[in-house]
Protein 1
Amino acid sequence: MPRQARVIVPGLPHHIVQRGHNKQPVFIENRDFQYYLDNLQEWKHTLGLEVFSYCLMTNHVHLVVKATDELTAIPQLMKRLAGRQTRFVNKIEKRTGSLWEGRYKISPIDTDHYLLSCCRYVELNPVKAGMVDAAEHYPWSSYAARIGLADCDGLDEPPTMAALGTDSQSRRERYQAFVSDGAFSEQDRQIRAAIARNKLTSGHRFVDEVERRIGLRIETRAPGRPRK
């Protein structure tokens, strides 16, 4: 089966997943996690990107990053993060070789309908993996900072957060309720399927809109089957 091409759409948030080589651990000690987050903060500022959500699991990372008009910015970010982490770990462990899988996965997100669900999906990873019983107890995700329990200078507020309340406290409380109600849903299935295949996290109408914007066919249609 041919490998699905990666698509980056200017101005859209993107769900990104990068896994350790052969699913082996990438982060073992606290310093490993912190080093990655320090580099994420540095390079997102350098490249002018916004980070809406993140979660560092032991053998993979999830990021939700908004693309700029400079389409090389996200690839540069991922190259810098992967390269620095590899050199850091290899130096400490006196080893050589790749730390990561060769290609990260990326899925442009329909901001209005899926962005907050993607952030929730990312931040609930440790809960669904049985690592913690509540998202705020996991120190290596953006959730605690999002609801005001931790500081994070490198975290940006998703535009759809504004619809949750007129002030920061009410937005935090409503987002917390939204995440707490985050049992497995149909949107979770769509998010997982989209990132696995480098497709848009969206409905058909939004796919058509993005294809018109970028002038490329990015989703495969069944022959002769009309779009709804």
Protein 2
Amino acid sequence: MSSKSDRDTLIDMGFPPDKVDRALKAVKNAGLQPAMDWLFSHPGDSDEPEGGATLGEKPIGEEISETSSSLKNTEEGEIRAEDQTAQSLVCEDCQKLFRDASTAERHAIKSGHVNFSESTTVIKPLTEEEKAAKKEELKRVLAEKREMRLMQEKEEEKSREKIRRKTGQELSEVKAKLEEKEMQKALIAKKKEKEEERLAKAKIKAQIEADKKERAAKREAAKQATLQHQQEIAIAEAAAAANVSKEYSEARLQIRQPSGSPITHTFQSTDTLQVVYDHVSQHVSEPFNLMTTFPRKMFGDSEMEKTLKELDLVPSAVLVVSLP
């Protein structure tokens, strides 16, 4: 199939270029079929085929007015060569006839033939059979053009479909990549959230353990203080219950330090508090004071020379080392 224009198609079918131009102009370039219909409905003397005809065959073309002399010669059946005039041009290379120089020139351009001469052969108009054949040729050409157009449209549709598919695939890939990135971000955020939650739980657990230890230490300290207080009460009650008239020569003292184990020592009831202070000084390296726990009393310099008996520390008592 070719891609010729309507004008080239009609000229190749044997219609003269001038007549083809008039036909296309008359139908306002409406297409091949309207132009063909116009050509068949407007025969004239100026119409001649472009493609020409082979010598010895019936020429293809439209009606040509014959002169009265040629009609007479035809009726008589013979025409002398010397009385005939040139009615057409013949291609010596392929023996095709042409109405005028323009059609011969067009043939020369297409075929490359250059040998032309004048001919007395008259190109006769188309017969009904030839017109029918041209119409069939036109239908064939139109069908070929339609087929070509349909094929072109199919190819274009295939091309557009490929582009759509490719575009859709690219969009799908872009969407998939975006979704993957969003998923990665979500996973990172979730992982971070879990880590923060783990750290928060660990912090709360550590705080709970610290609170437990603190409460246990407070309970133990309270227990020790209670036990100590009970011991002091027992000692005081025992001292109160003792016979005041009984004479004791010794005093057993328990002296508690700020740190470390208590100092327990037996003194003479006639020893002064200074003796006790000197004994405690061997264990405590910094200045201190002595005091009782029950009843609570702080000893000063005025009591240092008094005996333990005079200070009611006989037969036993509990003293506390107090740092200033």
